[in-house]
Amino acid sequence: MNILVINCGSSSLKFQLINSESEEVIAKGLCERIAIEGSRMVYTPKGGEKQITVAPMPDYTAAIQMVLAALTDEKTGVVKELGEIGAVGHRIVHGGERFASSTVITEEVLKAIEECNDLAPLHNPANLIGIRACQQLMKDTPMVAVFDTAFHQTMPEEAYLYGLPYRYYEDYKIRRYGFHGTSHSYVSKKAAELLGQDYESLKLIVCHLGNGASVSAVKNGKCVDTSMGLTPLEGLIMGTRSGDLDPAILNKESGIYGLSEDYSSDFRDLEEGYVEDKENCIRAVDAFCYRVAKYVGAYAAAMNGVDAICFTAGVGENSGFVRSLICKYFGYLGVALNEEENEKRGEALIVSTKDSRTKVLVIPTNEELATARETAALVQK
Ligand code: ADP
User: Fold this and answer.
1) Is the CB of 149 under 6 A from ligand 1?
2) Can you list the pairs that 157-164 forms with residues at least 24 positions away whose Cβ atoms lie under 8 Å?
């Protein structure tokens, strides 16, 4: 079955059409500047050239209409008719406490997602608009919601409660939720596969280090803690988000961008500066790596040990440099990196030595494929 995976942001829409049997990406693309002047669609069919269409997209329905037209286009399309799209999987940022797993979308589900709007005011409304637009254009196609928060719903109370009056939790549901769940779930399962061990008997720490960054502790196949909180701002130092800080400190341009004195939020630039001995770049990268190492140490303690540490997302997958700096903190875990393997890119790999007591893995994340799998599993029941 062909699954259309949709990720609706506040002014953009990313999509992939994935065949759920072969898990091949048949087409993918992005609509940018929706409802803003200068909207355009980037579309790449499998094996074909990237195409850029500049055309007005006054709303999400117009954007999705363009996507569907591209997918079914006589020349550049990948399916003959919309009937060949068996289901749509929507990435939803916040499912609150209501959703501990993906679910087929019904009117009741839409209402429950809407009730989580306050918890993610920038994201959930955009996600909902995306669903409504798809429903309008693909009336009989089943739709599935895949939540960023769902995987973390297994956290125990001591991990998700803040040190606040308990009524804040009872009355307003103020607690740790965690994000990037689709990635943490995908990568931890893949790690078990790569290690050739049973997912349900492993202690794993997943470091999702992208523009947004989070760490999770996955014990016996269940998330037991994660660094993002009520919102995706808590935890690690990120591209432009501060991560943990004393709540009394106000800030605007934070993260590695702020730490590097506005040099860059992109690790490629910072790495270059680091090698050239630029003080601001060294400061930003060292602070970032230290914070990751501190969380890994905390989660090793939370799980009373760790079998493998997994790196994923833009920085985690691509920067052997950053991985190596972080792993320098893990002598006490018996970590020994295989520097040659650690320089490789683009595939799932064990980058620690054979004797390394705790294994270190690099696993390219694939949130779209994970969403397609969840969607297929629910609509093929
Ligand atoms: P997002 O959170 O937006 O999904 P990604 O996971 O795609 O982000 O990560 C994007 C970040 O990855 C970039 O901002 C950049 O800092 C980093 N990155 C990408 N490629 C490299 C590389 N080759 N070396 C170091 N960092 C990289």
Assistant:
1) no
2) 159/224, 159/225, 159/302, 162/229, 162/230
Question: Which residue is closest in CA terms to ligand 1's atom 27?
Answer: 315
Taking the alpha carbons at both ends of the chain, their separation in whole angstroms is 13
DSSP state for residue 128 in the 8-state scheme? H
pLDDT, mean of residues 350-365 = 98
The stretch 65-87 carries a mean pLDDT of 96
CA 362 to ligand 1 centroid distance, Å = 14
Number of residues assigned to the chain: 381
Q: How far is CA 133 from CA 61, 143, 292, 372, in A?
A: 5, 12, 39, 19
Between the CA of 317 and the centroid of ligand 1 the distance, in Å, is 8
pLDDT surpassing 90 at residue 222? yes
Alpha helix (H) residue ranges in the chain: 60-72, 107-115, 124-137, 157-160, 166-172, 181-195, 255-259, 267-275, 279-302, 313-318, 320-327, 339-342, 367-379
Could you tell me if 115 and 96 are in contact, meaning their C-beta atoms sit under 8 angstroms apart?
Answer: yes
